[in-house]
């Protein structure tokens, strides 16, 4: 199958745009490879420090003739998705030792849960935690004693941060080892229904808590298709997971076997062997284009419209939202996973999962087939799925057809002909919108604006009965420079109630929505942000706005609205407390959302 012309054109444009920065990055990686791991060149004292606690591996390390694997872990036992990683280091060390090598935990990185901090002050640290994770990864690997590395992380900012950090050490191989989703609990649509009933005052907190704990009930990733599970999809589409490993549940024999195989594979990819595959060669322009295709075909998280740009820039690759928009127009939506449907990721995996989807996209020329991956050269490896037999872990061809066409469909009969995300542009700036869960009758909303400077103000107005007519809710001064660009997920229940009452309703914000944002049209990541004096800072209550997801436009229709002086906001309450004072430098130096909202340059 020949390559889809849109995919070819977008990829060629990315390559041309990135020529200078990518060449400089690869030159740095070649120089780092030439120097190699320095453990054999460390002073005797330095080596003794590095090996002192390694027990049976001490002598092997001293000989410096075997492969040495670094483990970067985001383990903590507050995050259900990361709790399974507690046992991974011991398993990895034993595995690598049996293969003749050695492994050490190089370092830990922080991992926070957006689900816990939604609507709380801690959410203002969330986006910045990504770059903190990248820096912590750099510190962990800075001892320069490792031939390859494995990365233990799953959730929202953790995987993007780990990928950014891994690319700083792009001359060594990197394999990402997932933990998998928790088993299915309370259905996601029922959970959402109960949240709306609570927001409407129809039930109390005790009933709400009971439902939430029935939904989030055990180890593993949350089962809806938010940012965490979008991350896992990307790691397969971009070749950093073993095939079919993303959505295998924790605590199962297959999950353990995949962890063992991933550790062995990482060691085998080092420069000491015959299949040297550094991560700088895996994460090239084609891999990032494949990642964008996966994002569109699955209706994934809007957060990746920021993270993928930041991840790519760490490898000298320059993406922009126009790349995403053009690929979205060309890529069909093949999956319906909550909030885009009723199924969860376990149902998606059982229906054929990523292996089936990658096969369908390859057949239609919508993926680059010739990328390098940790499983070998060629994305065809990722049409396979793992099985545990008497002979151990094996990979077989995945299903040739969807096993549930309400969840997963072939490319010739998709749920919709275009992807789940769109770019919006107009006199209000540039924004993005997730449309995969938005009914077509809500793709165009024209209504008066009601302006707020934080989500609590908006919720208070709703509870006071002030939002009963058609309205576009504007929540501004939520960008990365203003307050770290928190997710505004707590707006979702009351906006959903308003839409359910028959109102025309939409959201416009320079902040973020949850990666699981759903049925209410939301123009998010608006740039320039309000703090930079962007057009959104000039909107007043009553101005008529128009959000048109069909045409890709976002406009204020009120004459003279953009000639006003920009509004200002008192942001002093967002500068201190819950650790926010530690990130003042980030707020001052962060790039705009369309440049990845990162504190790092290219």
Describe the protein's architecture and organization.
- With 602 residues, the protein is an alpha/beta fold.
- The chain has two domains: 5-183 and 218-397, no CATH class; 421-595, IlvD/EDD C-terminal domain-like (Glucose Oxidase, domain 1, 3-Layer(bba) Sandwich).
- The chain is 36% helix and 14% strand.
- The strands form four sheets. An eight-stranded mixed sheet has the order 9-10-14-13-12-11-15-16. A four-stranded parallel sheet has the order 2-1-3-4. Strands 5-6 form a two-stranded antiparallel sheet.
- α1 (5-17) packs antiparallel against α16.
- The longest helix has 17 residues, at 19-35.
- It is globular and about 75 Å long.
- The two termini are 35 Å apart.
- The mean pLDDT is 94.
- It catalyses: 6-phospho-D-gluconate = 2-dehydro-3-deoxy-6-phospho-D-gluconate + H2O.
- Pfam families: ILV_EDD_C (PF24877), ILVD_EDD_N (PF00920).
- Catalyzes the dehydration of 6-phospho-D-gluconate to 2-dehydro-3-deoxy-6-phospho-D-gluconate.
Q: Structural class of the secondary elements?
A: alpha/beta
Tally of contiguous helical segments: 22
Beta fraction: 5-15%
> Mind describing the biggest β-sheet?
8 strands, mixed
Low-confidence stretches: none
Cα distance, first to last residue? 35 Å
Rg to the nearest angstrom? 24 Å
Mean pLDDT: 94
Total beta strands: 16
Strand order of the largest sheet: 9-10-14-13-12-11-15-16
Shape call = globular
Count up the domains: 2
Roughly what percent helix? 25-40%
Pathway: Carbohydrate metabolism; Entner-Doudoroff pathway
Function: Catalyzes the dehydration of 6-phospho-D-gluconate to 2-dehydro-3-deoxy-6-phospho-D-gluconate.
GO molecular function: phosphogluconate dehydratase activity
Pfam families: ILV_EDD_C, ILVD_EDD_N
């Amino acid at each position: 199958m020949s390559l889809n012309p849109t995919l070819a054109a977008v990829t060629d444009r990315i390559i041309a745009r990135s020529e200078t920065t990518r060449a400089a990055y690869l030159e740095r990686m070649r120089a780092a490879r030439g120097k190699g791991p320095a453990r054999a060149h460390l002073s005797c004292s330095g080596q003794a420090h590095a090996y002192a606690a390694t027990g049976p591996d001490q002598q092997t390390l001293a000989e410096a003739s075997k492969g040495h694997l670094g483990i970067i872990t985001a383990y903590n036992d507050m995050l259900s998705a990361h709790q399974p990683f507690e046992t991974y280091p011991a398993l990895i060390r034993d595995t690598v030792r049996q293969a003749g090598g050695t492994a050490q935990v190089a370092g830990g990185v922080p991992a926070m849960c957006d689900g816990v901090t939604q609507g709380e002050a801690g959410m203002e640290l969330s986006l910045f935690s990504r770059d903190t994770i990248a820096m912590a990864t750099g510190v962990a690997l800075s001892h320069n004693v490792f031939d390859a590395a494995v990365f233990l992380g799953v959730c929202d900012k953790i995987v993007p941060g780990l990928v950014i950090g891994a690319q700083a050490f792009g001359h060594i191989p990197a394999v990402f080892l997932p933990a998998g989703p928790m088993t299915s609990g309370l259905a996601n649509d029922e959970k959402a229904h109960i949240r709306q009933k609570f927001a409407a005052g129809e039930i109390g907190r005790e009933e709400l808590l009971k439902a939430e704990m029935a939904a989030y009930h055990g180890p593993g990733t949350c089962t809806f298709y938010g940012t965490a599970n979008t991350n896992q999809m990307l790691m397969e589409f971009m070749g950093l997971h073993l095939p079919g490993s993303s959505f295998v549940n924790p605590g199962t024999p297959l999950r353990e076997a995949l962890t063992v195989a991933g550790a062995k594979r990482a060691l085998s990819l080092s420069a000491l062997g015959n299949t040297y595959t550094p991560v700088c060669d895996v994460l090239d322009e084609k891999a990032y284009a494949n990642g964008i295709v996966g994002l569109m075909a699955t209706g994934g998280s809007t957060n990746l419209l920021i993270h993928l740009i930041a991840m790519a820039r760490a490898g000298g690759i320059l993406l922009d939202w126009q790349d995403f928009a053009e690929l979205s127009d060309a890529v069909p939506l093949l999956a319906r996973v909550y909030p885009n449907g009723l199924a969860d990721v376990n149902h998606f995996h059982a229906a054929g999962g990523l292996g089936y989807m990658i096969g369908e996209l390859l057949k239609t020329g919508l993926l680059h087939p010739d990328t390098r991956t940790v499983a070998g050269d060629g994305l065809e490896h990722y049409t396979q799925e793992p099985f545990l037999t008497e002979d151990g872990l094996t990979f077989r061809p995945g299903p040739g057809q969807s096993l549930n066409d309400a969840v997963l469909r072939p490319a010739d009969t998709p749920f919709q002909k275009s992807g789940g995300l769109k770019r919006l542009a107009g006199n209000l700036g540039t924004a993005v919108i997730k449309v995969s869960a938005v009914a077509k009758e809500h793709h165009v909303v024209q209504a008066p604006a009601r302006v707020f400077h934080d989500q609590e103000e908006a919720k208070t107005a709703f509870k006071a009965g002030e939002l009963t007519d058609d309205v576009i809710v504007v929540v501004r001064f939520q960008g990365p420079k203003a307050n770290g660009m928190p997710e505004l997920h707590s707006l979702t229940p009351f906006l959903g109630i308003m839409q359910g009452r028959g109102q025309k309703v939409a959201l416009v914000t320079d902040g973020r929505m949850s990666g699981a944002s759903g049925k209410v049209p939301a123009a998010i990541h608006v740039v320039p942000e309000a703090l930079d004096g962007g057009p959104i800072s000039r909107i007043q209550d009553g101005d008529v706005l128009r959000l048109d997801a069909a045409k890709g436009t976002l406009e204020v229709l009120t004459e003279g609205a953009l000639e006003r002086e920009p509004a200002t906001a008192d942001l002093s309450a967002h500068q201190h407390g819950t650790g926010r004072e530690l990130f003042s430098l980030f707020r001052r130096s962060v790039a705009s959302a369309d440049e990845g909202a990162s504190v790092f340059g290219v």
